[in-house]
Structures are given as structure tokens and as C-alpha cells.
């Protein structure tokens, strides 16, 4: 039930924020903060509970939705999804806080969209029914389209279209695959269902499995993104408002990574092993290509966007290395990249608010006037180039050392890619904060306000904490990852986890809740 | 005492944290100096206490596990420190010399507005280096290793408003990171092969797993060498160090003497057990050292900038250490490291005092005559130079370098080329060192002295000068006193060197001849730069091409620029708009074109529609007729 509350709070919070925007512009902000804070609190509380189950599943909720088609409202939570939803709510609050002064018009609708994107993301991380998964996948997409298209920068229409078409096209391929899997499984067992756990281990011939997997893969690699499907990302990230960039980089990309771990590996173990060399090669190409592209950019947000392409290459490399160490690296990468890149986008946003440009050739020598912002940027630039002591190092190191045994050449190239990461990260520092001060054009440059410090400080603390003490996160994800690799992924034992009270809930009530919001 | 070991790297780190968090404006300079110097000073005192403890009892703390960092599957990384005599020597040099450099910086940086930031970085630097040498696992060492890289970046680019300082800083970070890539891959291999990254486990497991000379240890050792070469500025990654002079002088002293560049020496000495299994890789260590010491020595001969001479001399002296490691003279390398730290810190600090006194003038040809104007600086600089040039008998540098030259002749693993390189290198060292001394301190004064160094500058110089003179006496050759206090320290931590049979009798011949060669070199420098400066000009004019080539550091920069940097930058610039995106744009244009094409057919003119229907019907009928038999 808790799992459904998490989603409902966001959905209703979004509606409330949307309506309250007509009365007052502050109300939607506070409603959003409140809604997400409730969720963050709940998810942290869940993380603090010791897991006494032998199964990796911590919580589950299964309600009938459209039983005639085998569609259920099935949510379940394991360590990986718990980490992801904590990240979602953590960055969610920051996204609201960072928009506090940035968003001036249609404030209510903005927060409606923001909360609904978060609801979609939460749903994606929790769903164990493929139909529902597709539903939430779409729920993420449309509000995001509005966020970019309405509150974005100068070229926002183009970016929003591009984002929509890329993700929608690939999403439709996934829908086809979901339906194909549904029928293949149904014909084989006479049990037509979209339930994830039932579909695990569906027997099908290699050819079919390959095609079905490619459909899923399409959606995930576009979202991640993997080269050559990455070109929506620089535009979308650059044109989105700061909160949009933060959610795109910090969370939406992670749904792609999550999809790879949650669906591709367990549903198609043989096929994933078969395409591993190609997938790793694409990942590694992305690492190097993204980094070189990042170096070539003059738009600060575009630079950071391409650095995401590079960092997500590590995810591709690590997932298809198919070792526990590499997968742990991937999970860490999902979290730390969300935080470090999110922080860099926030800083780009703060700079934009002050000097009204994202062009680094018009910046320089800001250290003297904004030392606090400079030190914080330095920390995240270092995180981005993988300095030990910060979270990203643990992620990349685990990914690489775990991938070495799987594919030496690819790991070698990926390691060299870190040199390129050094180059573009230092370029950010040089172009914006170091060098001769270019301030005569825009004389006053205020350092971070209390609100801005309050936003960035938690990010700094978390990235350092994950760097020096990543073990709690590793332990949370451990069980799920081991089961995935050992192909022991099984449904949670029902009586043990589900509170019987939940099942007494009448189905139509839920249906209503989901449909009408 | 060993329970307090963790405090040694932690104290400077805390100092850095305090200084960073309190920011630039909030703390008065006195408080900053107390925090900055105090933290390193306390670490130095702790080290000395542990040292005394060790020297009196012979007991040394093996390691202290502090906490678990992370562990996944079979990879477990604790944050643990390991102290043995090898790391003890390094810790001593880092904290002690580091402390003197900190004290010196109080006066040197007094007028700088970013005083606190400077000390924060210095503290962080010392702390990272201590972590590097104390780390019990290679991953923790990698943390220190990268931390040192970061601090060098921050400090070289300390005066960030100058564009070229920022360039030098980035160059240092990026080039050392190229080496780090090799090191990282080495770690991956070690973990894949041995399942552990704890140094002591590796050293015990390796001989059980691998036969001497088999491919795996050789590959791993070469990869580690790659890391060492980057950090220690050895051929072919030496190009960052001369540019690193952009930082303030105390930073140069810290980078060259106490921290950073000696990391590579430490790494190879630390992994000695692996190199013993990989003689081919060890040979490469020696080759790298020999090549580096010669090319850097030649470049040092041609520089104008006082600090650049010193920079090239560092590269060259580290080359000696690599040579020593390559021929299995492990403790000689560490001995030379320690003595080098004393005299090189001294030289950089003294050079800093000179440069400060002359309004930031770096060009030696614009100096001169400072002997009388700055006697204290002159005396200490002279002592440092004598040690660098290995002036026989009275300088510490003689004892450390002589040992390496002798062993490059006598060691089983050495060959004639190594020996020749070491001897020629010693000769070149003597010339460029005293060229520098004579140009700076002799002749007539060309720039007036504006500012005399105060106590906080001269006292560290005097202490270092004493060490640069006398520290050599703890290790004297067989032919002369035969004291082995220093090498005895390593009886359990480093393997002894194996000599070729029947070479002992040659030792005094080699010592005398290299000693004489040094004296000849000094005399030549005196002749060319004091008695007959015209000859030096003539030689310069007649060999202008070589001179330029050496001056530019054998043009490695241009080479790398042309084959690596430029192509990548060119690609990045040309492809700023991402050619892959063009494919999608083309798709969009194609569909727009088709749409335009087909929408034109829907023009509302009836006769066109009829035309279309008829044409379509004709085509269909024709096809049906053709297909059906």
C-alpha cells in the first residue's frame, strides 16, 4: 500500500498544485515540496528498515486491474528500486527548490507537470506489470514534453518535439515487444498475462527472443542514451528549464539504465549475453565520443549534456559486462551521475539567471566574485572526472574493474575515456571560473544566496558521502543484482510480504484512482 | 604510538578542510598560518616520534585498519594504512620538508590575497601524498595518487588570472592522468589475476602464482611503470613538469621535492616483489631512467629561466632514481630520493627568494652578482647546487648519486649503457648546475635587489642546507668509511642488490673518476660563464639548432600537439554540431520533401485527379497482364 501512496501523493499533489496556481503562485511550490518531502521521508524510512526477508523484495502490492487481459496493478520494491526512488524524491525536491525564482508564469501548471513526471518515474521504478510499466513510461513523457516546450529556452519547441518523437518512437517499439511477449507467453502456457514474474523464463525460440528484446532495448537505449540515438539529449537538456534538465539528466536517463537491469537482463539472459560485445562497444564509443563532443561545445548546458552521454556509456559497458561488481558500479553510476550532473546543470542555471547567457566564451574569471559557487563547481567537476573520494569514482572504478574480466579491450578504451573526461571537466573550470575576469560587461555578479546554498549543499554532502562510504547503497542493491545475474529472479513470496488488508481493497476504487487522475 | 598513525594524513586534511570552509576573508593571516603549518608540523612531530620509537625498539606498526571503504563480491577495499621502513622514509620527507615549505610560504605568500586558499591546497597536497605512501591497498593509493594530481592542478594554476598558468595546470593534470590510465588498467589486471588489491597480499601471492619472467607480471609491471612515468615526469610523459613552474615557488618545491614526482619512485619501490618477477619490465624502468636523465640534462643546459633549469634537473635526477630501480638498487633509489628532496627543496626555495627579490625576474641572464647582495641565499643555494652536482666528499648528493653510478657499473642487472648514461649524466649535471650558480650569483648585478628575505625564509633554507650537506653521512661507500645506516633500514622491506662477481676492486676507480668528472664539469662552467663568457656565446651561436631543440625539451610538446592534441581538437571543433544528428535531420527533411511532393498532388483540380485514376488503372492493368500468364 505504501508503494501506491508514493504514486498517489505525487498524482494528487500535482492536481492540487495545478489548481492552486490560479489562486496564488506560492501555493503550488509549497504543495510540491510537501508532497515530495512526504515521499522522501517514507522512502528513507523504508531504507532504514532492516530486510529480514530471504527474498530481495522488500514490499509488494498486487491488485487486479483488467483481469480479462491479465493486467494487474502490480508494484514491488527491491533495493535497486528503493535507491532509485530515493534519488527521485531527493532530486525532485531540489527541482522544485531550484525553480522557485526561475519559473514566473503558469506556475501551477509547471508544478503539475513536474509532479506528474516524478509520478511517472516512480511508477516506472516500481511496476512489475509490463502493461502498467508502459503506462508509466508514457506518463513520464508527456509532462516532460510540456516542461521543455513551455518553460524552456529560446529553441524549446524544436527540442521538445525532438525529445517527444525519439522517446515515443522507441517507446512504441517497446509496446510492440510487450504485446509480442504477452502472446508468445500466452500461446506457450495458455496463461495470458502481463505480469513480469510470470513472463520471466518464457520459453521461446532464439529468433523471437532476439526480436522481442530489441524492441525493449530500443526504448532503453534511446532513453539512456546510447550512441547513435543520443542526439535528442543535447537539445532537450540545453533547452529545458533548470528543473527540467535536472530531472532529465538525473532521473529520466536512469529509467533507461533501470530498464536494462530490470527487464533486459532477467527476461532475455541468453540474448543479452549474445549482444554483449556490441552493446559494450556502443557504450565505449559513447564514452569517448560524448567526451570529445563535450570538449567541443561552447554552450555550458550542451557541454554538460554531452558529458552525460559519456557517463551513460559506462552504464552500457557495465550492464553488459554481466558481473556483479560491474552492475554495482552501474547502480552507483546511476545515483552519482544523477547528483553530479544535476548539480552542474543547477550551476549552469544559476549562472544563466545572473548573466543571461550559457555561452562559455563570454564567461571567465568568475572565481573572485563567486568563490562559493566556484568551489562547489570544482567539486562537481572533479566528481565528473572521477576523482577518488567522490561518488563517481566508486561507480566508474567498480564498472571498469568489473568489466575487465568480461572484455579487456573495451575496458581499456573506457579507461582511456577518463582522460577525455578530465579534459572537458577542467575546461568548464577554466572557461567559467578561471582566467582573466570578464566581468566588466556585467559588473555585478552575486555569489550564491542562502536558498541556493541550501540547494547545493545537500548535493555536495551526498556526493562526498557516496565517495567515502558507499557501502549502504551497495548493500541495498546487492541482493537484487545477485539474483539477476544468477537468473534466480523470482516473484516475492506472496503471503509473507503482502499485508492481507491490502487485498481487501476493492478493485474498482483503484481503477478509478488510476484512470481518472 | 602506532595507534596515532591515522592522524598523520588526517591532520593536514583537517587543516585543509578548516581553511576551505572558513573561506578567504574570515580568518586572519596569523590563524591561517597556524592552522596550515601547525597541521603539517604536528604530523611531522608524530612521524619523528614514531621514527624514534622504531629506532629504539625496532618495532614498527604493520598496519591499522580504520574502516571499510567498500566491498562488492570478492573485491573488498578497506581504508587501511601500512607503515614499514619504506613508507616511513617517505612520510618523514613529506612531513618534514613539507613543513619547512609551509613555514617558508608564510612569508613568501604574505601579500597574496588568496593566502588561505594557498594553505588549504598545500595542506591537501601533503595529505594526499601521505595517503599515497601509507595506503595499504592499491585503490587507496590511487586515491592519494589522484588527490596529488588534483592538488598539483590547483596549485600550478594558483594564480588563475594568467591564461598560461591555467594551461600549465591542465597540462599537468591531463598528462599525469594519461599515466594513471595505465596504472588503473594495471590494477584491473592485478585484481583479475590475484583477486586482491592489498599490497602485502599481492606481494605474497605473486611469487606463488607466476614464474619469473612470465607475461602477466611483465605486463602488469609495465602498466604500473606507465603510471609511474606520468606522475614522476619521466620519458615519454615528462613534458608537464617544466611548465608546472607556473605555480608559486613553494609549490614547485613541494611538487619536486617532497611530493608528487617521487610518487612513481615510491610505487615501483613498493611493488618491488612484482618487478623481481618481471626482469624485462625492470629493464624498461632502467631504460626510461637512463633516457630521461640524459634528455632532461641536455635541456637543462640550455634554459634561461632559473626555475626551468631546476625543473629539468628534477626530471633528470628522478631519472637516476628510475635507473637505480631498474638495476635492482632499491635502497639506493630511496636514498637518492631523500637526499634529492633536501637539496631540491632548498634550491627551489632559494630560487624563490631570488626571484622575489628581483621583482619576479626569472631569467638568469638578467640576474648576476647576487653573491654579495644576498649572502645567506647564496650560501645555501651553493650548498644545494653542490649536492645536486654531487661535489665529491663534502656534499650529501655525492654519496647518494655515487652509489647509483657505482651500482650501474657493478649490479648484475645493469649494463654498460646504463653506466655510461649515469656517468655522462653526472658530468652534464655538474655543468648546468654551476652554469646556473655562476649566472645568478657571479658577474655583475643586472637587476637591483628590492626585497631581502626575512627569517621565515632563511631559516628553512639553513635547515635544508645542513641536511643537504650532512645527510649523506648516514650511508658511506665501502671504500670510504662503510656506513650502512640507511640501507640497513630496508633489510626486510627491499631486496638487496646483487653484484657481478669480482667488481669490488673497481669501486674506488669509478668513484675517483666520476668525482673528477664532476670537478671538470664545474671548472668548465666556471670557465665558460665567469672567465670567458664570450666562448659560451660562440658555442651557443655555432650550435643554435641543437640549442633550440634542447631548449624546447626535445620538441616533445610539438610532437604530441601534432599527433594527438590537434587531431582531437580539430574533430571536436568540426563536429561541434554532431554529424550523427545530421542523419536524423536528413530523415526529417526527406519526410518533409515527400510530404511536399504528395501534397502537391492534392491540388483540387478535377482533371488531375481523373488523370491520376486513369494512369493508375493503366499501370495496374498492365502489371496484371504481365504477371498472369
From TrEMBL, chain A:
It is found in: Endomembrane system; Membrane. This is NADH-quinone oxidoreductase subunit M. Keywords: Membrane, Transmembrane, Transmembrane helix. It comes from Pseudochryseolinea flava. It comes from the Bacteria. Signal peptide: none annotated. GO terms for molecular function: NADH dehydrogenase (ubiquinone) activity; NADH dehydrogenase activity; ubiquinone binding. Pfam families: Proton_antipo_M. NCBIfam families: NDH_I_M. GO terms for cellular component: endomembrane system; membrane. The chain crosses the membrane at residues 27-45, 82-100, 107-126, 132-151, 163-184, 211-233, 245-265, 271-291, 303-322, 334-352, 372-390, 410-429, 450-468. PANTHER family: NADH-UBIQUINONE OXIDOREDUCTASE CHAIN 4.
UniProtKB/TrEMBL annotation, chain B:
It is found in: Endomembrane system; Membrane. Residues 135-429 form the NADH:quinone oxidoreductase/Mrp antiporter transmembrane domain. GO terms for molecular function: NADH dehydrogenase (ubiquinone) activity; NADH dehydrogenase activity. GO terms for cellular component: endomembrane system; membrane. Coiled coil: none annotated. It comes from the Bacteria. InterPro entries: NADHpl_OxRdtase_5_subgr (IPR018393), ND/Mrp_TM (IPR001750), NU5C-like (IPR003945), Proton_antipo_N (IPR001516). Keywords: Membrane, Transmembrane, Transmembrane helix. The chain crosses the membrane at residues 6-27, 34-55, 75-103, 115-133, 139-160, 172-191, 211-230, 251-269, 281-302, 309-331, 337-358, 378-396, 416-442, 454-474, 508-529, 608-627. It is a multi-pass membrane protein. GO terms for biological process: ATP synthesis coupled electron transport; electron transport coupled proton transport. Residues 69-119 form the NADH-Ubiquinone oxidoreductase (complex I) chain 5 N-terminal domain. PANTHER family: NADH-UBIQUINONE OXIDOREDUCTASE CHAIN 5 (PTHR42829:SF2). This is NADH-quinone oxidoreductase subunit L. It comes from Pseudochryseolinea flava.
Amino acid at each position: 500500500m505504501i508503494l501506491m501512496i508514493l504514486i498517489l501523493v505525487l498524482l494528487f499533489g500535482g492536481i492540487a498544485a495545478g489548481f492552486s496556481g490560479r489562486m496564488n503562485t506560492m501555493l503550488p511550490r509549497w504543495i510540491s515540496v510537501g508532497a515530495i518531502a512526504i515521499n522522501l521521508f517514507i522512502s528513507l524510512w523504508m531504507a532504514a528498515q532492516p530486510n529480514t526477508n530471504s527474498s530481495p523484495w522488500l514490499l509488494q502490492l498486487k491488485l487486479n486491474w483488467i483481469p480479462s487481459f491479465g493486467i494487474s496493478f502490480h508494484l514491488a520494491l527491491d533495493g535497486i528500486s528503493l535507491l532509485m526512488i530515493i534519488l527521485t524524491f531527493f532530486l525532485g525536491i531540489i527541482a522544485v527548490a531550484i525553480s522557485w525564482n526561475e519559473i514566473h508564469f503558469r506556475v501551477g501548471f509547471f508544478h503539475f507537470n513536474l509532479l506528474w513526471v516524478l509520478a511517472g518515474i516512480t511508477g516506472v521504478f516500481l511496476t512489475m506489470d509490463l502493461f502498467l510499466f508502459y503506462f508509466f513510461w508514457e506518463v513520464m513523457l508527456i509532462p516532460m514534453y510540456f516542461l521543455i516546450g513551455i518553460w524552456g529556452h529560446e529553441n524549446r519547441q524544436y527540442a521538445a518535439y525532438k525529445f517527444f518523437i525519439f522517446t515515443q518512437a522507441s517507446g512504441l517499439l517497446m509496446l510492440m515487444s510487450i504485446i509480442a511477449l504477452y502472446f508468445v507467453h500466452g500461446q506457450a502456457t495458455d496463461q495470458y498475462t502481463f505480469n513480469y514474474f510470470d513472463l520471466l523464463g518464457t520459453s521461446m525460440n532464439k529468433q523471437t527472443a532476439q526480436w522481442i528484446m530489441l524492441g525493449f532495448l530500443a526504448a532503453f537505449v534511446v532513453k539512456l542514451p546510447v550512441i547513435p540515438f543520443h542526439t535528442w539529449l543535447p537539445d532537450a537538456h540545453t533547452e529545458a528549464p533548470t528543473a527540467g534538465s535536472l530531472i532529465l539528466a538525473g532521473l529520466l536517463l536512469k529509467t533507461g539504465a533501470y530498464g536494462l537491469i530490470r527487464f533486459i537482463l532477467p527476461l532475455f539472459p541468453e540474448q543479452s549475453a549474445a549482444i554483449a560485445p556490441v552493446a559494450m562497444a556502443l557504450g565505449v564509443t559513447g564514452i569517448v565520443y560524448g567526451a570529445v563532443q563535450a570538449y567541443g561545445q561552447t554552450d555550458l548546458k550542451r557541454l554538460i549534456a554531452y558529458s552525460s552521454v559519456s557517463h551513460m556509456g559506462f552504464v552500457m559497458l557495465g550492464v553488459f559486462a554481466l558481473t556483479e561488481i560491474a552492475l554495482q558500479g552501474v547502480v552507483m553510476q546511476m545515483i552519482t551521475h544523477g547528483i553530479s550532473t544535476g548539480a552542474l546543470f543547477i550551476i549552469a542555471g544559476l549562472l544563466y539567471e545572473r548573466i543571461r547567457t550559457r555561452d562559455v566564451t563570454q564567461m571567465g574569471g568568475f572565481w573572485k566574485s563567486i568563490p562559493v559557487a566556484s568551489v562547489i563547481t570544482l567539486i562537481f567537476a572533479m566528481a565528473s572526472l572521477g576523482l577518488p573520494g567522490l561518488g563517481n569514482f566508486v561507480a566508474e572504478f567498480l564498472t571498469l574493474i568489473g568489466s575487465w574480466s568480461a572484455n579487456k579491450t573495451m575496458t581499456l578504451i573506457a579507461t582511456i575515456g577518463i582522460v577525455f573526461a578530465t579534459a572537458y571537466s577542467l575546461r568548464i573550470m577554466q572557461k567559467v571560473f578561471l582566467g582573466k575576469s570578464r566581468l566588466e560587461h556585467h559588473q555585478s555578479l552575486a555569489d550564491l544566496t542562502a536558498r541556493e546554498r541550501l540547494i547545493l549543499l545537500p548535493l555536495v554532502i551526498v556526493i562526498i558521502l557516496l565517495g567515502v562510504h558507499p557501502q549502504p547503497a551497495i548493500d541495498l542493491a546487492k541482493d537484487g543484482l545477485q539474483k539477476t545475474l544468477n537468473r534466480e529472479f523470482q516473484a516475492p513470496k506472496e503471503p509473507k510480504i503482502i499485508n492481507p488488508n491490502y487485498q481487501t481493497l476493492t478493485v474498482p476504487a483503484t481503477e478509478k484512482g488510476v484512470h481518472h487522475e | 604510538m602506532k595507534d596515532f598513525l591515522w592522524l598523520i594524513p588526517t591532520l593536514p586534511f583537517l587543516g585543509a578542510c578548516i581553511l576551505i570552509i572558513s573561506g578567504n576573508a574570515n580568518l586572519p593571516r596569523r590563524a591561517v598560518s597556524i592552522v596550515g603549518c601547525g597541521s603539517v608540523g604536528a604530523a611531522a612531530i608524530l612521524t619523528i616520534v614514531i621514527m624514534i620509537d622504531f629506532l629504539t625498539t625496532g618495532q614498527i606498526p604493520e598496519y591499522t585498519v580504520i574502516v571499510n571503504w567498500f566491498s562488492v563480491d570478492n573485491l573488498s577495499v578497506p581504508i587501511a594504512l601500512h607503515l614499514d621502513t619504506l613508507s616511513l622514509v617517505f612520510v618523514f620527507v613529506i612531513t618534514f620538508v613539507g613543513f619547512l615549505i609551509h613555514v617558508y610560504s608564510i612569508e613568501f605568500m604574505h601579500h597574496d590575497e588568496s593566502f588561505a586558499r594557498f594553505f588549504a591546497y598545500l595542506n591537501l597536497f601533503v595529505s594526499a601524498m601521505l595517503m599515497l605512501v601509507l595506503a595499504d591497498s592499491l585503490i587507496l593509493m590511487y586515491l592519494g595518487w589522484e588527490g596529488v594530481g588534483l592538488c598539483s592542478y590547483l596549485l600550478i594554476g594558483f594564480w588563475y588570472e594568467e591564461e598560461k598558468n591555467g594551461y600549465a595546470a591542465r597540462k599537468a593534470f591531463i598528462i599525469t592522468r594519461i599515466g594513471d590510465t595505465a596504472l588503473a588498467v594495471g590494477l584491473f589486471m592485478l585484481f583479475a589475476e590475484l583477486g586482491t588489491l592489498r599490497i602485502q597480499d599481492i606481494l605474497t601471492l605473486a611469487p606463488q602464482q607466476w614464474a619469473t619472467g612470465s607475461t602477466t607480471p611483465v605486463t602488469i609491471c609495465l602498466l604500473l611503470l606507465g603510471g609511474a612515468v606520468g606522475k614522476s615526469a619521466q620519458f615519454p610523459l615528462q613534458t608537464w613538469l617544466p611548465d608546472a613552474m607556473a605555480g608559486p615557488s613553494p609549490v614547485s618545491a613541494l611538487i619536486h621535492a617532497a611530493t608528487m614526482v617521487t610518487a612513481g619512485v615510491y610505487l615501483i619501490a613498493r611493488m618491488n616483489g612484482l618487478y623481481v618477477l618481471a626482469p624485462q619490465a625492470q629493464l624498461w624502468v632502467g631504460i626510461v631512467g637512463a633516457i630521461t636523465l640524459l634528455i632532461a640534462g641536455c635541456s637543462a643546459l640550455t634554459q634561461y629561466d632559473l626555475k626551468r633549469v631546476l625543473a629539468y634537473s628534477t626530471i633528470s635526477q628522478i631519472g637516476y632514481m628510475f635507473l637505480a630501480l631498474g638495476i635492482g638498487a632499491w635502497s639506493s633509489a630511496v636514498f637518492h630520493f631523500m637526499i634529492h628532496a633536501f637539496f631540491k627543496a632548498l634550491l627551489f626555495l632559494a630560487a624563490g627568494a631570488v626571484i622575489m627579490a628581483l621583482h619576479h625576474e626569472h631569467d638568469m641572464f638578467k640576474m648576476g652578482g647576487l653573491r654579495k647582495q644576498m649572502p645567506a641565499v647564496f650560501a645555501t643555494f651553493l650548498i644545494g647546487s653542490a649536492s645536486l652536482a654531487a661535489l665529491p666528499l663534502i656534499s650529501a648528493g655525492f654519496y647518494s648519486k655515487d652509489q647509483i653510478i657505482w651500482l650501474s657499473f657493478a649490479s648484475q642487472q645493469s649494463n654498460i649503457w646504463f653506466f655510461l648514461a649515469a656517468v655522462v649524466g653526472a658530468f652534464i649535471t655538474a655543468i648546468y648546475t654551476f652554469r646556473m650558480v655562476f649566472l645568478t650569483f657571479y658577474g655583475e648585478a643586472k637587476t637591483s635587489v628590492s626585497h631581502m628575505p626575512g627569517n621565515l625564509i632563511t631559516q628553512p633554507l639553513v635547515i635544508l642546507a645542513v641536511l643537504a650537506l650532512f645527510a649523506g653521512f648516514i650511508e658511506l661507500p665501502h671504500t670510504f668509511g662503510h656506513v650502512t645506516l640507511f640501507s640497513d633500514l630496508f633489510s626486510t622491506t627491499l631486496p638487496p642488490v646483487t653484484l657481478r662477481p669480482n667488481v669490488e676492486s673497481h669501486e674506488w676507480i669509478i668513484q675517483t673518476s666520476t668525482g673528477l668528472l664532476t670537478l671538470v664539469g664545474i671548472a668548465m662552467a666556471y670557465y665558460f660563464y665567469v672567465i670567458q663568457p664570450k666562448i659560451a656565446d660562440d658555442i651557443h651561436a655555432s650550435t643554435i639548432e641543437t640549442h633550440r631543440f634542447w631548449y624546447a625539451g626535445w620538441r616533445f610538446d610539438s610532437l604530441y600537439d601534432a599527433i594527438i592534441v590537434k587531431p582531437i581538437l580539430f574533430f571536436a571543433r568540426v563536429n561541434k554540431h554532431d554529424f550523427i544528428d545530421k542523419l536524423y535531420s536528413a530523415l526529417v527533411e526527406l519526410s518533409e520533401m515527400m510530404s511536399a511532393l504528395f501534397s502537391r498532388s492534392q491540388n483540387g483540380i478535377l482533371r488531375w485527379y481523373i488523370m491520376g485514376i486513369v494512369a493508375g488503372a493503366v499501370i495496374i492493368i498492365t502489371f496484371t497482364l504481365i504477371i498472369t500468364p
